[in-house]
UniProtKB/TrEMBL annotation:
Protein name listed in UniProt: Putative prophage protein
Top-rank taxon, per record: Bacteria
InterPro entries: Phage_gp6-like_head-tail, Viral_HT_Connector_Assembly
Pfam families: Phage_connect_1
Organism: Ligilactobacillus salivarius NIAS840
């Protein structure tokens, strides 16, 4: 599966200039892409919708920033408080649902089957 975002785009967002963490960043991109494909209902053969690339990039940034704080719902120390969402995709659920509605509407176009009883082929779809 090809990445839907470029490693360099993620490194730019994170202000990283070395290759030290490229392996980790590629893994984050791969897992985030798989998670979004699942949420969109895309099987392995379906092309990833480019209009949703921004979600992968934004969630990758969140995922990277959460490293070493996995499982922590909130953190407080000397007046500083940090709280993580339970799902990195929460802010994008409306966009995901909108895309699914539009995509399902296109797939649900009516079609008809014509059967020719004299043909050796089973049927023709239109």
């Amino acid at each position: 599966m090809d990445s839907v975002i470029e490693l360099q785009d993620l490194k730019t967002m994170l202000q990283l200039n070395t290759t030290d963490q490229d392996g980790l960043l590629n893994l984050i991109i791969k897992n985030t892409t798989k998670a979004l494909r699942f949420k969109l209902g895309l099987n392995a053969g379906k092309e990833f919708p480019q209009e949703l690339d921004y979600i992968v990039l934004e969630v990758c940034v969140r995922r990277y920033n959460r490293l070493k704080n996995e499982g922590m719902a909130s953190y407080s120390q000397e007046g500083e408080s940090i709280t993580f969402k339970s799902d990195d995709f929460d802010d994008f659920l409306a966009d995901i649902e909108d895309w699914k509605k539009l995509n399902n509407a296109e797939q649900a176009k009516p079609h008809a089957k014509f059967i020719n009883p004299f043909s050796k082929e089973d049927c023709h779809e239109i």
